[in-house]
Each structure stands twice: as C-alpha cells, then as structure tokens.
Amino acid sequence: MAEEKREFQAEVAKLLDIVVHSLYSNKEIFLRELISNASDACDKLRYAALTDPSLVADGAEYRIRLIPDAEAGQLTIADNGVGMNRDDLVANLGTIAKSGTADFMNRLTGDAKKDMTLIGQFGVGFYSAFMVADKVTVVTRKAGEEHGWRWESDGKGEFTIAPEPDAPRGASITLSLRDSEKEFLDRFRLSAIVKRYSDHIAIPVILVEGDKEETLNSASALWTRSKSEVTPEQYREFYHHVAHAFDDPWLTIHSKAEGAIEYTSLLFVPGSKPFDIFHPDRKQHVKLYVKRVFITDEAEGLLPPYLRFVRGVVDSQDLPLNVSREMLQHNPVLAKMKSGLVKKVLSELKKKAEDDAESYATFWETFGAVLKEGIYEDFERKADILALCRFRTTATDGLATLDEVVGRMKDGQDALYYATGDDVAALKKSPQLEGFLAKGVEVLLLTDPIDEFWVPAVGEYQGKKLVAITQGDVDLSKVQADPETEAAKPEAAPAEALDTLVAALKLNLDGKVKDVRATDRLTNSAVCLVADSGQMSLHLEKLLKAHNQLDHDSPRVLEINPRHPLIKALADKVKSSGREGVEDAALLLLDQARIVEGEPPADPVDFARRLATVMEKGLVG
Ligand SMILES: Nc1ncnc2c1ncn2[C@@H]1O[C@H](COP(=O)(O)OP(=O)(O)OP(=O)(O)O)[C@@H](O)[C@H]1O
C-alpha cells in the first residue's frame, strides 16, 4: 500500500493553527502530554494482555523512552504499549472525538491569548507536539498485528499515512524540533520536566543517550505511596494526568480502606466544570485498577452519576485480576467499594463545608446542580446530601443551608417556601414573592432545572412541607406581619364588589384560565398567575416546552390583588356598568400576568390594540 494523504478534521486544523501560532509560554507541557499518552497506551495493553497473553509475546516490561538526537535535531518519545493501526491513526490523530468539542470550538475567539487559556482547560493532548516541532512522525504497530504504520504531518492541514513493515510494537513519536526549541534535547532540561510533570507515571520513563540509560521518574504508582511522601505538586500533576484536565483540583482525597475489603483511592474534585458534565450519558470518571493494573475507566458501578464530577483512581486488592468489564456489573466487591467511596466523598465534602465555607461556595456553584441529583437518586443518603446543599434565598446575599432557613422561620409559618426560575435576579422580582417579602418570610430561590425534580420528590424537610410560591395553596394568614406594615396597607375593595369583579373576570376569561381569585400574595402588583394545587409549576412547564417535551399550556389560576388601585377601580366599574365594561381589562390583566412570567401575550396584535385603546382613553378621556 502506498502513502496516503489525508486532511485533518476542520476542528483539528483550527486547533493546530492556534497551537502553532500562539506564543504559549508553557511549551514544555508537550512532553507531559506525550508521556501521559504513552503511559495510557501501556495501561491499555497490560489490561488486554490479561485475557490474551499472546499480545505481549514480544515482552511485557513496559517502558517509555526519551531519545534526544542532537545531530538530527529530533526528540523521540517511544513506548511499547498498545500502539495503533491505520484506522486508529486516522481516528485518533486526525480528529477530536472528545465530547464538548463543538461547544469548545464555538468559544474560541480568535484572540490568541484568550484562546490559549481556553485550550489550557480543554487540553490539546497529542497536538501539543506542534508547539515545539515543525514535523511530527509517528511510527507504530498495534499489539497483536503484524505490520506497522508511519504517520507524518507538518501540522498544516494534512497528514500522510504509509506502511512501515518493521515498526516495533507500541508507538514512537519523533519531533523535528524548531530551531528555537532545541533546548528540549538537553538532558537536564528533559530530566527536570519529567520530574516536574511526570514523576507519578507508574512506568519507567528512561532517558536514552547512546548506550546510556537513566530512569528519570520514581516509576511507582502515586496512590500506593503514603500521603506524607507525596507533595501537593505531585498530586496536582497526577490529577492532570488521570483526569486529562488542566485546572487545579479543588479537593484531593487520598485514602486506604482496610477491613472486609481492601482498596486504595486517590480522588479529586476538579476546580472547574468539565465540558461534558451535563452530557446525557452521565458516566462516572474514576479509573479502576486491580493490584495496580489498570482495568477500565468505565466501571459503571464504581460511583453514582451524581458524583460524576469526581476524578481519580481506585485500586482494589480483592477483585480478581482477570475481571472482565462485563463481570464488573453487579459485582458485590464493586458495590461495597462504591458504598465506601460515596461515604468518603460526602464526608470530605462535609468537612470542607464546615472548615471553609467560602471555598465550599465555589464548589457549590460549580457542581451543586450535579450533586443535587443524588437527593432523589440515592434515597439512603438523601439526608447527607441535603445537608451539603446550599441555597440562594430572599434573606441573604450569600448561600444558606436548609437548617438555617428552618431556623429563620416566622411564628405561624408552617411551610418552607420556594420559587423556581431561570435566574435569581428575575426571581427576586416575581410578583408572587411580594406577600412573602412583606411578611418577612424567607423564600428559597431555586434556579437549577434539577430543582423542579428533587423538591417535589423530597416533599418536606424537618417536618416542614416544601411549597412553591407559585402554587395555589399558599396561606400566609397565620404569619404575623409587622404591625406598622399592616397598618400602612391600603384598604381592600369591598367584599361584594370584589366577588362581582371575580365573577366578571371568570366570564370574560372563560377557557383561558382555570380560575380567578383574590389573594393576599401580592402587595405592589395587580395580578399574577399561579398553578393550582397539584398542577405542574409554571417554570417546569416552560422547561419542558423548551425541550420539546410538552406542546400545550395548562390553564392557570389568575390571582388578583384586592388592595391594588386598579383592581379597586375595576370592582367599582363592574358594579356600575356590568361585566361587558371589563372585557378588555380582563384580557389585558391576563396578558400582563403572562408577560411578568416571561411569556408572550396570548395574541400580541390584540394585546397592542387593547393597550392602545386603554391608553387613548386615559389620555383623551
Ligand atoms: N503513544 C500512543 N500509543 C497509542 N495510542 C496513542 C498514543 N498517543 C495517542 N494515542 C491515541 O490517540 C488518541 C488521541 O490522543 P490525544 O492526546 O490527542 O487525546 P487524549 O489522550 O484522548 O485526550 P487529552 O487531549 O485529554 O490528552 C488517544 O486517545 C489514543 O487513543
């Protein structure tokens, strides 16, 4: 087969262009990326060889070798891992398969500095080689296959692939260094970089100069060392490697479980939100090892989906080495480890929340929405997770716990109230909130879509019902208001006139609303919409419609404020001229309530015409 020329996927070409042309100051990280890939490739082969030893017939001692060649100006990073065949090369070194890539590409601005920071978070992996090289050659043979391949590119849009019959097993990446990057041939420089970024790699990283070989790293799995032997930098670098992440971990949890089952875990909570955290697969990301042999990074039962932000490794002493990924499903040892790990992570989060509320708040902003899924998915730990939750409320600018909110309940208040919506600022302006603010009743402001699900599932906290302020059955009459505020309240419309107005509005809005009634929920606004008890909340309905899960509106209850001047005037008018006199007003009031909810008027043209008529009357007549 002859040499074949291919084009990079458009996203790769764009990424390469930025990588090559930006003045990225931290170029040395290319070596970390390539060593990290080499180590992953060895892990993969070690696992595959458990069931098929013939794959490593040509040697099972894994090595990563760094070979500088000053004369040629080339640096080679060679491993004897799993290697790649032709299809792998095209798929892995010509495209980006990572989830979130499209989103990431859209966020690139064209401003080199800003883009580089973004890339820092995304990770360019193999492609970082082009930061220092103007040509990259990969010679590789996949374990178990007879023939090898040569992949070559100058990073300018195309690559070539040709057969390389005698390639040894694994992959060797040769970088033709740019003139300005020859420092990466220097043994001291290479040694320092490996110590800084790759010391934790469990496979020996060997510097080869002529017939001299020197191992540059500790080459023992980091999690097997005792905590006192590991520096914060080493933990951080290990996190970068294991999580393929480029931020700093917010929390590091290194622990050993001994007893009925034995395992070591080194877990991290990232400092920033991974791109794919809300991907529908909700996969967990902790790697499973058995006696230091990598088994899989897809052990579904290792951590629950609501802890999918956790990264790291778990190394079991009890699982058999030849455990297949299929056998892991419903495995009792795995189930026990999961229970232990969940307990550990939740208790470490609790500690952090107690010791450093400010730092915990940053965690909460990043991953709170994910953790909250556990409230209704993990019944056993519901209480622990609720205790870790933080909320925005009407009472403080910061975050509050549910216990704090319960502690601030007013005399006569028998429920915990909440409002759901898209953002806190808009929620704070909800008309439905007015009556609560007037009586000093604290309301939780919930803005994560998940809140619509866990709140009804939980139902109550410490015996207090959780009630939506946009729901029909809110009764604040037992809560004492401040006497001064109470005295300053305007008179309500007389009961009889109000009843007539309600009846007139019902007639005029027949079929458009479920009911019309007077409320003490409002102080400044004339009207608002609420869901009847048992009906879906307004916000949930909006969310479902946005996701095409719902295609109709349910009629709502229109509540009117009997103390509002407009309502009082309308009540007067109905008394004197009957229900026909308020036809336009009824429809306008309903549209007004819809607009406040962020919805368009039922018929914008009719709405505009009615508004113009009313304004004209106001101005002219
Ligand atoms: N030395 C290697 N041996 C075998 N396969 C490799 C090697 N280096 C890279 N690959 C393959 O190429 C793929 C792409 O590598 P790349 O470094 O771009 O991304 P990654 O390692 O998957 O993710 P990240 O960008 O987070 O590092 C890898 O997932 C792997 O399948």
Automatic annotation (TrEMBL):
Residues 1-325 are annotated as: A. Residues 26-181 form the Histidine kinase/HSP90-like ATPase domain. Keywords: ATP-binding, Chaperone, Cytoplasm, Nucleotide-binding, Stress response. This is Chaperone protein HtpG. The gene is htpG. Homodimer. Signal peptide: none annotated. The keyword Chaperone applies. Residues 543-621 are annotated as: C. The keyword Chaperone applies. NCBIfam families: PRK05218.1.
